[in-house]
Amino acid sequence: MNDLSSIRVLVTGGAGFIPSHLVDLLVARGARVTVLDDLSAGTRENLARVAGAIEFVEGSVADRDLVDRVVAGQEWVFNFAANADVPRSVKHPDTDFTSNALGAHHVFDACRRHGVGRVVQASTAAVYGEPRYTPMDEEHPLRPISPYGASKLGAEALGFAYHHTYGLPFTALRIFNTYGPRQPRYVIYDLFRKLERDRRRLEVLGTGEQVRDYCYVADTATAFLAVAGDEGTIGEVYNIAGGQPVSIRELVALILETLGLADTEPYYTGQSWPGDISRLVADVTRLRARGFAPTVDLREGLRRFAEWIDIAPGEGAR
Question: What pTM value is reported for the model?
Answer without folding.
Answer: 0.93
